[in-house]
Structure formats: C-alpha cells, structure tokens
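Consider one such protein record:
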Amino acid sequence: MRISATIPGKLILLGEYAVLHNAPALVAAIDRYLRITVKRVSGDKCILKLPHLGAEVLFQTKDGQAQPLVEQPVQSAAIDNLFALLNSLIKKESRSIAMPGSIEMIIDSSDFFAPDGTTKLGLGSSAALTVGLLAAVRQMLDRDCSNKQQLLKDSYDLHNHFQGLAGSGIDVAASIYGGVFQYQMKRDASDFAPRVKVMPIPKDLQMRFVWTGQPASTADYLKKMANYRKHNEAKFNQTMQSLANLAGAGCEAFLNGRTDTFFQVVQDYHNRLAQLGAESRIPIISDVHRQIADIVYAGGGFYKPSGAGGGDFGVIFSSSKSHITELAQSVASNGFTTTDINVGAEGIKFSADKGGIHDSIRLPQTV
C-alpha cells in the first residue's frame, strides 16, 4: 500500500510577532507544496529518498531512534534536520512508534526552494514537513488523522520540540486547514487552544508576493526578540500592544470587506514593525524591504514584510488587478522577483493506492 500526502506552505498577511502574544493574525495557505509518499517494502531496511537533493538514505529504527545505516555520500543539514524531526516524532508519540516494517519514504520539497535549487524560501517548509510526516506515519499505523484540531495541537508540539522554541503554530495551521483564515493562539499557562476562522477575501482586494532574494531565519529573529524583551519589558509590551491592536483592526476590516481600512492598517503595521526593529536592533524592515516599500508606496499601493522580516517575502496590496500589475512591474523593473504564488490552497490532502511509488520531481520554474 502506498500513502501520499500533499501539504501546502504559507505566507502571513498580517499579525507577525503580535500573534505570539495572543493577537489575531491573517495567514494564507499557498500553492507551493511539500509532497510525501510512503510505502511498505520488502527487506529489513528503510529507505529515505530526497529527489531534490539527489539523496537516498538507508536507515533503520532501533532503540527508539531512526539512524542512517552508513555514512552518507551527501552531507546535508536538510538530511540531519529530517532525522532530528523523525526522532522527535518517535519520542513525542505517547505510544512508542515502531516503523511499520520496512518502508520507502519520498519527500519532495522542491517547491520550497528557489529555481537555483539551493536557496530555501521562507514558506513554512519545516511546518509542512512536520505535519506531513506525523500524519503519514499515523496513516501507515492506521491511526486517525481526521480531527484537524488534534492534528494541529500534536503537530504544534512536535514542531516546537524539533525547533527548540515555542512558535505560534500559524504555519502548522496553514498546512492543515488551508485557505485564508484568521489564526489566534488562545494559549494560557495550561492550554493551547488555537482558533481558526475562515476569512473570505474581499472582492476589491488584490495581493502579490515579492521575493526579496535574501533568505532570513525566523527562529534567529525570535530568539533575538526574546532577548530584547527580557531587557526592555515595558517598551516591548507597549509596542507589541500597538501591533496587537492593529492586527485586530486589520482582521476585522478584512472580514467585513473594508479594504480602505485594511490598507491603512497594513501601512501602520509596516511602520510599527520598523519601530520594533529600530528598538530591538533587529533588521525587520531590512534595506531590501525598505526599497520595495518605497517603490510600492510611491506608486499608490501598500506593502509590508510577510513574516519575521529581514528578507524572505513581502506582500503588495492594492484594490485593482491593473494597479497591482503596474506595481509588480515597477518592483520587477528594479530588480526584485515578483511571483505567481496564489493563496487559498487546500490543506493537507491524502491519497492511497496499491500501486508503486511515482517519484518524479517537479522543479519550480519561478519563485
């Protein structure tokens, strides 16, 4: 039996940083997918195939650990991270996982890389991998994955354990639920009960995503932000409350189709992120983001980073297709990469059959 899963990535529209403090945020699942295929095979070894890296790794699970059988010719942090995640999964599952015999697992993450095949895009690949791997293993063990809220909680725990820090879970939620939605952690000292609310896109709201050409580490920025908060509690809380208020107002305007209000919130949020970056000495609005923002605002549009900032993606907003096309062309003419990314992708999707594994890889032709 073969089980395949397709898991979307994500881009944040509004609410980064504030979402970690129980503010609502807007997130979109996008049409960039991680694909996992798992199949039982004969023999006494498990096989991991990573076609994007040109790697094939033999491994086995023993004493609660998944371990490569021999030193691999391809040394890659991606392979090390994948085994770290797999072992986190084995450790975190309440019922000890014994892999269902020997398996062959193919993980295709090519959609999460730039066309050069080496530059990782900030599209939530680790969250998509966590969700997909957990769900695929449970499917192979005939365990229920139909409860999305439970899968979100379990994937959130696993993702945080794997990364070594407590994130918001917004990227995990996008991989599971899909679509465009408002996300709120609703976490207290004893419980994590996130809320997901589907949000229709206003008819007169257009968006286009821009790749800055510079990858950025969200985990690194969050660690630096935690250090800033530790030494500047009062100032941090003041700025974060301002961001939270804006995020709430923006989500409400988005839901009610008040695009003019939403656009103003986007501009204010961008400015507050710049303030937070200046206070914390973290380049949230990096030189690249500042250049793109100058182009977009000069052209009558609205812009902000999508995510932790520094690099990765930004999002352009406008009220008409023709105007956002003009803005995107202006940004592109200045050397930046506008994308064909679409929002509202379906959440994790499974298929199963008794056939063999089709392990072809689809390399992205555009970011």
